[in-house]
């Protein structure tokens, strides 16, 4: 990342350029239209350079466009994208929602998080291409964008290329005793493998991992974050070179937080306002001062509850740099498979209480914390 300590230095053989949606007729229609089902190439750059900044905002009738639109990036004439993610998730907004998000490399800025920004440097040696695929039934009526980049004489092949991958899983409860987080239902087991963890990076090549946006939707009020992060570098066995102590610890916080906190490198951009930790939480962490290096491969995952004891709707965007070629990503789940899980409502919780009351014998003054 650029830093202020050398901003005064004058550099040779560089030129700053921009590709934008400005109205080339000189009028004020400074946007493009992307029809439903259409893929638009918003930036095609020849030669060598570094993309320094991307800004996007849009208008459409589709309220779920941040999941229904896909951003892809290609470097050096490659066929398979190095970046592939739903538009909102890539810039740090989960579930197709609009909300403000602040970090050093990514931001969703006012009005109400509708201005999407990236400051990740993205080098390329022989061309770059950025596309937006509108998988919605609605047109994106107005799509505004800047792509600001530097023209360089050359960029070495040894320079890492920027990558980002979106994944999602409705996690299955692994222990036979069911959702027994904190030992509430039964004694908890020991997890001595990463086989059942939620996978957020599966990388082949040489490079370094630099960040993650982590979106968790919890259908129950239990704390979702007892899961440890686990990193297997260059094919090493469990427990790996880096092994965490809990989800909130991985995101540089503590003691089951449920509050908005926005640090340049880590934080909580969205939290639920329900019972306990029920609902949607967006955690993020960027390893800009402490990248995770790998020479051959990296498998990074996290438990969904200790010993993978919780059903959660988890989705992530992982960010890293590596030399090419990269491992081809699995096919992006179709639009129907990217929809949100239904919201658990007050009515649902009341029905849980009703079933619990029957299981307790139907007493007329049962409070809710009685146990057999």
User: What is the N-to-C order of secondary-structure elements (H for helix, E for strand)?
Assistant: EEEEHEEHEEEEEEEEEEEHEEEEEEH
In angstroms, what separates the terminal alpha carbons? 58 Å
**What is the CATH class designation of the largest domain?**
Mainly Beta
CATH homology superfamily name of the largest domain: Protein of unknown function DUF2961
Q: Can you tell me the CATH architecture of the largest domain?
A: Sandwich
Q: Multimeric state of these chains?
A: single chain
Tell me, what's the shape?
Answer: globular
Structural class by helix and strand composition: mainly beta
User: Helical amount among residues, as a percent range?
Assistant: under 10%
Radius of gyration: 22 Å
Low-confidence stretches: none
CATH topology of the largest domain: Jelly Rolls
Mean pLDDT: 96
Number of domains: 2
How many individual helices?
Answer: 4
Strand content: 35-45%
Largest beta-sheet details: 11 strands, mixed
Give the tally of β-strands: 23
């Amino acid at each position: 990342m650029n830093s202020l300590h050398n901003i005064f230095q004058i550099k040779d053989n560089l030129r700053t350029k921009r590709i934008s949606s400005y109205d080339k007729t000189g009028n004020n229609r400074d946007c493009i239209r992307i029809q439903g089902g259409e893929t638009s190439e918003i930036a095609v750059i020849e030669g060598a350079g570094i993309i320094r900044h991307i800004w996007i905002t849009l208008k459409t009738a589709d309220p779920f466009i941040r999941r229904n639109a896909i951003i892809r990036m290609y470097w050096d004439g490659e066929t398979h994208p190095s970046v592939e993610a739903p538009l909102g998730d890539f810039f740090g907004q989960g579930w197709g929602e609009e909300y403000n998000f602040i970090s050093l490399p990514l931001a969703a800025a006012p009005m109400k998080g509708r201005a999407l920004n990236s400051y990740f440097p993205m080098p390329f040696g022989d061309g770059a291409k950025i596309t937006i695929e509108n998988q919605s039934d609605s047109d994106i009526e107005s799509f505004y964008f800047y792509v600001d980049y530097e023209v360089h004489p050359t960029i070495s092949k040894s320079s890492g290329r920027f990558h980002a991958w979106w994944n999602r899983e409705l996690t299955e409860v692994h222990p036979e005793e069911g959702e027994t987080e904190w030992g509430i239902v039964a004694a908890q087991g020991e997890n001595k493998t990463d086989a059942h963890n939620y996978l957020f990076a599966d990388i082949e090549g040489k490079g370094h991992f630099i960040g993650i946006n982590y979106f968790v939707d919890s259908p129950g009020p239990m704390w979702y974050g007892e899961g440890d992060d686990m990193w297997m570098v260059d094919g090493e066995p469990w427990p790996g070179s880096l092994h965490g102590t809990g989800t909130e610890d991985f995101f540089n916080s503590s003691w089951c937080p449920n509050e908005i906190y926005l640090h340049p490198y880590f934080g909580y951009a969205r939290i639920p306002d329900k019972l306990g930790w029920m609902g949607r939480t967006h955690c993020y962490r960027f390893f800009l001062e402490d990248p995770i290096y790998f020479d051959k491969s990296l498998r990074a995952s996290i438990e969904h509850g200790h010993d993978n004891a919780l059903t959660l709707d988890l989705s992530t965007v992982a960010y890293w740099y590596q030399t090419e070629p990269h491992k081809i990503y699995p096919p992006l789940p179709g639009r129907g498979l990217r929809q949100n899980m239904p919201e658990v409502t007050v009515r649902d919780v009341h029905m849980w209480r009703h079933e619990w009351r029957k299981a307790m014998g139907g007493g007329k003054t049962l409070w809710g914390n009685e146990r057999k």
